[in-house]
Amino acid sequence: MAPPRTLVIVLAGGAGSRLELLTKHRAKPAMRFAGTHRLVDFPLSNARNAGIDDVWVVQQFHPTSLNVHLANGRPWDLDRTRGGLLVLEPYQGDEREGWHAGTADALWRFAPAIEGFGADAVVVVSADAIYRLDYAAVVDEHLASDAEVTMVTVQHDGDNTRYGVVETKDGRITGYQLKPDEPATDIVTTEVFVFDPQALVAGLETVAEQGEDALTDLGEALLPLFVERGTAHDYRHTGYWQDVGTVAAYWRTNVAFARADAPFDVDDEAWPISTRGARRGGARVSGGGEVESSLLGPGARIEGRVRGSVIGPGVHIHAGAEVVDSVIIDGAVVGAGARVVRAIVDERARIGDGVTVGVGAEGRDDDEAITLVGAAAEVDGDLSAGARHPEQ
């Protein structure tokens, strides 16, 4: 029996404003992760590892930053003559032209193409979470359930007011709230959804008929529509999942992957997270440099001390410098004798000699203590814990 014809749609067009300076000049899915990868690598690798060959990526903000990395789908074996990777962007020419106002709006604008593809199931995913998931297994359960939508959910500790929160009974989703002030449960959606294609297109048209402002995000009107008529199925993901759509979550998750007990191995041969190949030599630790519980990207030069941190490609940590519990992104420089604590330093930024970034952050574990330095910034004076230093 042939496997179901499956289409994966990666929604990669959001502005990513919660990441503040980090998404000023790049798409959120193009954000570096764990020193070598990008956020978009996770859904693309999940599709590839699940044996799904048809993947569409919907773009909008800063598309060039993402397109360069996508490389026509080659890193995920999606550069095919038939099928493979297809990039969709806002366009002009018919009644569905223009900018996307949200995830549901983006799908509605490409609904004719979705309908014409003729899939048995459409997997819609975001590109701002870290996880491994067999999309094919979710599709199989979805088709067996006879549901119109299957929502992949997790039990999530912490602040759930930023997510879609669900109530379930016997595998069915009986209640759904988007970003509620008082969540009814601790079960949240992972922003991975499997739709019956006909139900998806019809549902989008139903929402569109409510007015031009109705088509915003999936959780505003479309998902509640399916829940209300009892056609929403729950697929509980029991593995690791973490949204990294905020500065604090991005920092915390990166640092977690630098530890020996990282949530999972991105190089696991059974489920590798593929990425566009590095074009640099190996990292170098020299001149008395020390590294403890950290990730080093290719081409990094470590002459100082690095502890509990993620060091991106081409980063230079000069002699006498110390980097602790921080994320230093591509090509950034930490000057001689400088100290960086609980910070994110964006690409090509320069921390001056003897400067301390994250003054007062040592020993703190609150999200407000994370200091953020923008791309290409020149930091010539000390920055306190939680400070924001924009680019020059």
TrEMBL record:
Keywords, A to Z, come to: Glycogen biosynthesis, Nucleotidyltransferase, Transferase
Pfam name, any one: Hexapep_GlmU
The UniProt entry, under SUPFAM superfamilies, shows: Nucleotide-diphospho-sugar transferases, Trimeric LpxA-like enzymes
Domain named Glucose-1-phosphate adenylyltransferase/Bifunctional protein GlmU-like C-terminal hexapeptide: residues: 289-362
Annotated Nucleotidyl transferase domain residues? 8-256
Gene Ontology molecular function terms on file: nucleotidyltransferase activity
The organism sits in which domain of life? Bacteria
Similarity annotation: Belongs to the bacterial/plant glucose-1-phosphate adenylyltransferase family.
- This one is known as Glucose-1-phosphate adenylyltransferase family protein
Origin species = Georgenia faecalis
